[in-house]
Design brief:
- This protein has about 280 residues and is an all-alpha fold.
- Helices cover about 80% and strands about 0% of the residues.
- Helix 3 crosses helix 4.
- The relative contact order is 0.09.
- It has one domain.
- It has 11 helices and no strands.
- The radius of gyration is 22 Å and the shape is globular.
Length: about 280
């Protein structure tokens, strides 16, 4: 499969036979890479574009050493980034469900459907990440100046990173999968985080290690972000937690029921239309 889209890539159905057993672990990862890498990479590029306002605005606050400007930039940038990050998760979760469809069509529809619901999560995500970067930078700055930041501050910074990344691992999939108020999404994310602690911890470590590598390897980290940035950690984290979400929310069962209802309604509409034509012909 090519990396960049051709016309037929937006019109071909690349679904999987529903009776085909799903692979697990690393075999599942490479299966998705072979089948859906192009879709995930295109969604990733759009997500990079969506994060440009947040990066620029927070960067201005960082350069001016103004926490207020950084926070305001994170809020405004999060409003722009949230829908694109939701689109990234929607693309990955569809791939994990082996859901047939045409990427550009489903992406646009999902983007419109999740736009409002993803704004508050986007703001929370960008504000938290910004504060985490500030705290970590502050700790390293003190260390570079020969000042002991204290074990408590380092422990608090690490725990903050872990807890919020564990929470986000279950938050974003719910944003795109479930129609519910944001406070309910946060409450469910906290419950899932505690109920599936090893999986939540694994997903958090993946995110922290990846983005830590990106930041520490700057400016080469920019290339790493452009190539792998969002789709790679997103795919691994979703693969880790998707089974938990299915166990709790029965996502695929709900989707199948909704599609069956839509097909039944469509078939009923066709029958009624045929009946009207028959009556008019009589």
């Amino acid at each position: 499969m090519g990396l960049f889209p051709r016309a037929k890539d937006f019109t071909e159905d690349r679904g999987v036979d529903k009776d085909t057993p799903r692979k697990t672990g690393i075999r599942r990862f490479f299966e998705l890479m072979g089948r859906d890498l192009q879709d995930m990479f295109l969604a990733h590029l759009l997500t990079c574009l969506g994060f440009i306002p947040a990066i620029c605005l927070v960067g201005i606050g960082f350069l001016t050493k103004s926490l207020l400007v950084m926070g305001a930039g994170a809020v405004v940038g999060g409003m722009a980034a949230g829908p694109f990050l939701a689109g990234m998760y929607d693309t990955v979760l569809r791939a994990l469900r082996d859901e047939p469809g045409y990427w550009w069509t489903t992406y646009r529809r999902a983007f419109r459907q999740n736009f409002k619901a993803s704004i508050l999560p986007g703001i929370l995500y960008c504000v938290v990440i910004t504060l985490q970067i500030f705290v970590v930078y502050f700790c390293f700055s003190m260390l570079a100046e020969g000042v002991d930041a204290g074990t408590g501050l380092w422990v608090a910074a690490v725990l903050n990173l872990l807890v919020f990344q564990m929470l986000f691992a279950y938050m974003w999939p719910q944003v795109v999968l479930l129609d519910q108020p944001f406070p309910q999404t946060l409450a469910n994310s906290l419950r899932c985080m505690l109920a599936f602690l090893p999986h939540a911890l694994a997903a958090a470590i993946v995110q922290i290690l990846f983005w830590g590598l990106v930041i520490l390897s700057m400016p080469l980290g920019l290339l790493l972000m452009l190539v792998l940035g969002f789709w790679f950690p997103c795919e691994i984290c979703c693969q880790i937690v998707s089974g938990d979400l299915e166990q709790v929310f029965h996502v695929e069962e709900r989707i199948r029921a909704r599609k069956d209802a839509e097909l039944a309604a469509y078939a009923s509409g066709e029958e009624a239309e045929d009946g009207r034509h028959s009556d008019s012909g009589a």
